[in-house]
């Protein structure tokens, strides 16, 4: 093997091991929507990004305020706490196009009904489920 490529291969092996470990840590957090683990995983990822020097914006989402609005579309699960997280890694050329990745950190149990009137809370729908009730204010 060409010895010039060995440092690159070693770096790739290290990166693979590190990425695998990070993924393993994330999978261990049972981030079911509406549970404390949902907030835990958002804060965990924010910490990982911050440790890498990535700019982050982490804020609490006003769930009670939003769910009280008449135009609120509903939630896939009941929750009284949620967090928003945006991470930004500036490029080297401010004129270059931006690249955005979007994702979710929470998971929804397979038996959860799709969002809709039945998840808007008992005051808005006769078919509301107990776990989907709007948070008390």
Please give a structural write-up:
By secondary structure, this protein is α+β, with helices and mostly antiparallel strands. The chain has helices spanning 6-27, 36-51, 63-67; strands at 55-60, 83-88. It is 31% helix and 9% strand. A two-stranded antiparallel sheet has the order 1-2.
List the helices and strands and how they pair.
Layout: H1 6-27, H2 36-51, E1 55-60, H3 63-67, E2 83-88
Antiparallel strand pairs: 1-2
Distance between the termini: 67 Å
**Poorly predicted segments:** 118-137
The percent range for strand residues is 5-15%
Largest sheet: 2 strands, antiparallel
Rg? 20 Å
Helix content: 25-40%
Shape: extended
Q: How much is the average pLDDT?
A: 82
H/E element sequence:
HHEHE
Structural class: alpha+beta
Q: DSSP helix count?
A: 3
Strand arrangement within the widest β-sheet reads 1-2
């Amino acid at each position: 093997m060409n010895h010039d490529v060995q440092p690159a291969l070693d770096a790739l092996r290290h990166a693979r091991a590190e990425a695998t470990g990070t993924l393993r840590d994330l999978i261990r957090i049972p981030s079911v929507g509406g549970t404390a683990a949902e907030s835990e995983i958002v804060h965990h990822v924010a910490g990982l990004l911050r440790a890498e020097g990535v700019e982050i914006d982490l804020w609490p989402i006003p769930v009670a305020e939003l769910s009280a609005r008449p135009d609120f579309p509903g939630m896939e699960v009941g929750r009284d706490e949620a967090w928003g997280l945006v991470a930004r890694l500036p490029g080297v050329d401010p004129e270059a196009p931006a690249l955005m990745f979007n994702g979710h950190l929470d998971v929804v149990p397979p038996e959860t009904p799709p969002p809709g009137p039945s998840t808007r809370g008992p005051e808005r729908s006769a078919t509301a489920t107990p776990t989907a009730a709007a948070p008390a204010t």
